[in-house]
Design a protein that fits this description.
Residues 32-56 form the C2H2-type domain. Helix content is 14%, strand content 7%. It contains 1 helix and 2 strands; from the N terminus they run ββα. A two-stranded antiparallel sheet has the order 1-2. It starts with 8 loop residues before the first strand and ends in a 5-residue tail after the last helix. The structure holds zinc ion (2 copies).
């Protein structure tokens, strides 16, 4: 598995790879982080809407 295109962002804080930056997980606004995939969002409403995709 040489390719990791699905996780282009490598977090400078924890060194893990993510599809998007999740820097808020290390700062504030943890309620804006998806508990499933650790993506972060600007609005809580976006997190809720996003998390529905995990239920499909
Ligand atoms: Zn991190
Ligand atoms: Zn998610």
């Amino acid at each position: 598995m040489a390719h990791s295109r699905k996780k282009p962002f490598v977090c400078r804080q924890c060194g893990r790879g993510f599809r998007r930056t999740h820097i808020r997980e290390h700062t504030k606004g943890k309620n804006l982080i998806c508990s499933k995939c650790r993506e972060d969002f600007l609005l809580k409403s976006l997190v809720i809407r996003h998390q529905r995709t995990h239920l499909l």
